[in-house]
Amino acid sequence: MAKKAPTAPGSSYTPIAADEISKRRQKVGKLLKDRVGLVFAGEHSASLRGDWEPSVEFYYLTGIADEPGAVLLLDPSHPNPRRREVLMFRTRDPEDEAWHGIREGLSPQLRDRLGVGTVFRTSRLNWLVTEAASRTGKLATLHEPRPAPAGVNQDLATYRLAAERVPGVSIDSAWQPFYQLIAAKSPAERTLIQGAVDATMAGVRAAAREIKPGANEGAVIRTLTRTFAEHGGEGNAFNPIAGSGVNATVLHYGANNRVMEDGDMLVLDSGTKMGGYCADITRTFPVNGTFNSTQADAYELVLKAMKASIKACTPGTWMHDVDAAAREIIDKAGYGHAFYHGIGHHLGISVHDVDPKTPLAKDAIVTIEPGLYLPEENIGIRIEDDIHVTADGPKNLSSKLPVDRKGVEALMKG
Ligand code: GLY
Ligand code: MN
Ligand code: MN
């Protein structure tokens, strides 16, 4: 129970310290004041257990990556300091453990190692929340609401059960200030993201040499992911995309099994993880090794748009204004219809990390990824870098991977 994210053989990063994770909980406790908050790890289905990942919110506040169904209760005004942070785990199930791995029992040692006041089973959850609701009268949500038809978030569902029993309870929302904390990455988090970016860049460099007419998209992916691992990467942050020809225009293409042809472009969008943190980088290649003039014109337009949006990544700027910087350039060139996704997203524990829906925070890390997709012309282009938003301006974490046309062509030659 309660292991950190797995460490790849040969990787040598420093994981996030327990003390840093404890300070995160204290900060959320401060923003809650006398309200109560719940954070759910999320569910899994048995067959998918190998791929299970906790919610960003739960991993950020606990560092625990292997306890589906776990819940963290934050009750910062509890008179007993031991009850201010309570972690609850599912009951042990010997049959499940025989299939999926042995879990640790509850103990004072486990509690102290996790640095929380109390560890319980999730069977106590409704009891604890009802007790807290009676005492504080104030409950707050720490997960962004999901629109219908997705189910009601588990925190809100749990609060509603308590509110039915305790008159006068208020339920308000604290997810935005919580997500602002998650968005601003600490030095230790930035080191891990840079490590993931470095391993991803190594993968793209190696994969670029596999791109040629007659080769299969799958060969590109195999070299990419093998190189991630050789550089300490921990698997894929998301399903990698090697889309050639018309597949380059499919935003989340995943088959990765077409034979590339002379005259195609190939969009290679991928990222590995390190210490639980993600990278997400895209480069677009001319399959025959040289951009023709139509491809070059389109590529230069996307690159110009990308540079404008990167420049706009400063603290206090809204992401929609960062988006507008690129969109204006593509619109003006008459290709607005061919750029049909947003400019980027927060990056961190998840590739599409939680978004506070506020202006960019200092030390946020975001992707900038304009694209241009013209299926009828066999043109698909996306370029994506990972940007650290600093008070001194944007810092491009993936700038060492060439993005200009000549540099991209040179990558293919190795
Ligand atoms: N690969 C998914 C994305 O770039 O957002
Ligand atoms: Mn991407
Ligand atoms: Mn992305």
Mind explaining what this structure looks like?
The chain has 414 residues and is of the alpha+beta class. It is 36% helix and 16% strand. It has a six-stranded mixed β-sheet with strand order 4-3-2-1-5-6, with helices on both faces. Strands 7-8-11 form a three-stranded antiparallel β-sheet. It starts with 17 loop residues before the first helix and ends with a helix. The N terminus is likely disordered. Bound molecules: glycine (GLY) and manganese (II) ion (MN) (2 copies).
Into how many domains do the coordinates divide?
2
Q: What is the strand content? A: 15-25%
Poorly predicted sequence stretches spanning 5 or more consecutive residues: 2-9
Helix content: 25-40%
CATH secondary-structure class of the largest domain: Alpha Beta
Fill in the CATH topology of the largest domain: Creatine Amidinohydrolase
| CATH fourth-tier homologous superfamily of the largest domain | Creatinase/methionine aminopeptidase superfamily
Mean pLDDT: 95
Order of helices and strands: HEHEEHHEHEHEHHHEEEEEHHEEEEEH
